[in-house]
Design goal:
The chain is about 25% helix and about 20% strand. With about 325 residues, it is α/β, with parallel strands linked by helices. The protein has 10 helices and 14 strands. The chain has a 7-stranded parallel β-sheet with strand order 3-2-1-4-5-7-6, covered by helices on one side. The chain has a 7-stranded mixed β-sheet with strand order 9-10-8-11-14-13-12.
């Protein structure tokens, strides 16, 4: 019987950290080595995550302690701007550790593998440093990628996220009183995910994010201008061909609903609608921002790095 790989999580108190713990708890070849959280220091993980069994407790670990834990991999589920010192400490004490960073800190660093498996897994060549894509950025890229060579101009992306995307630190974007009966626009130009997608796809993308009063799930409506007129059945066939064999991507005829993707691990793309003339296309994509937009994708990347089946521990029945 093979020895399980060990994984530690830094930033385990947040919503994504909790989802990561659930995924690791059901993994056949991975064990949770440690979970670092200042706020939950000393408390049992199982008291917060019923799916996890065992005596493991949250710890308030310094950067050096994280690097000295000896885990095979460390997942960083921290806010933007918080990863660099931790990565530096791991580089010094345990450079062979696989690091999966869920923040935006290394998405523009050519030394790191950018892990959106459905689009980039062929570029993986054993890198120990993996940058997880943003949640909005995942939805945008999967919605646009099949048509990048047919575009006549920048795609316009109207994104709406549940307030869990704003994290647990109090702000206007997760204030339920402000969000009630409201749709809150923010960062309407030069959002980090706009720059991320433009860089990864090699085409300029325009992105307008909004927060809604539901807890989880993203709806991404994308307006695409095409160089040549197309028929809707040809567009749909193109997407189905592009994502054939991808269990976590489902192509629909109708527009997907965010209420139907919450708690599920894949992406739904549909609602393909052409304007008269056949050169303007609208596509809708939905995903759970905490799962395929974060934890599920991190697990895909971790499995890839360890040489496991990419979908180990990811429930398949939820994507059917």
């Amino acid at each position: 019987m093979s020895i399980p790989k060990t994984v530690g999580i830094v930033g385990a108190r947040g919503y994504t950290g909790a989802e990561l713990i659930r995924l690791i708890a059901r993994h056949p070849h991975v064990e949770l080595a440690f979970v670092s959280s200042r706020e939950l220091d000393g408390q049992k993980v199982s008291d917060h995550i019923p799916e996890f069994t065992g005596e493991l407790r949250y710890e308030n670990l310094s950067h050096e302690q994280v690097g000295g834990k000896g885990a095979d991999a460390v997942i960083l589920a921290l806010p933007n701007g918080k990863a660099a010192e931790l990565v530096a400490a791991i580089d010094v004490r345990a450079p062979d550790t696989v690091v999966v960073d869920l923040s935006a800190d290394y998405r523009f660093d050519e030394r790191w593998y950018y892990g959106l498996p459905e689009l980039t897994r062929r570029k993986y060549a054993g890198q120990k440093r993996i940058s997880n894509p943003g949640c909005y950025a995942t939805a945008m890229q999967l919605a646009i990628a099949p048509l990048t060579d047919r575009l006549a101009g920048p795609p316009q992306c109207f994104g709406v996220s549940g307030y869990s995307g704003a994290g647990t630190t109090p702000s206007d974007k997760n204030n339920l009183e402000l969000l009630r009966d409201n749709l809150m626009p923010y960062a309407l130009t030069d959002h980090v995910h706009e720059r991320e997608v433009s860089r990864q796809l090699g085409v300029p993308v325009e992105f307008m994010p909004h927060v809604a009063p539901h807890f989880r799930g993203i709806t991404m409506t994308v307006n695409l201008w095409l160089q040549s007129a197309m028929k809707v059945e040809d567009v749909r066939a193109l997407y189905r061909q592009r994502y054939a064999g991808e269990p976590l991507v489902r192509i629909l005829d109708d527009a997907p609903w965010v209420s139907r993707i919450a708690g599920r691990h894949g992406v739904e793309i549909g609602g393909f609608t052409l304007a008269p003339g056949g050169k303007r296309l609208v596509v809708v994509a939905t995903l759970d921002n905490l799962l395929k937009g974060a934890a599920t994708q991190a697990m895909q990347n971790l499995n890839l790095a360890f040489g496991f089946d990419e979908l180990d521990s990811i429930p398949q029945e939820t994507t059917a």
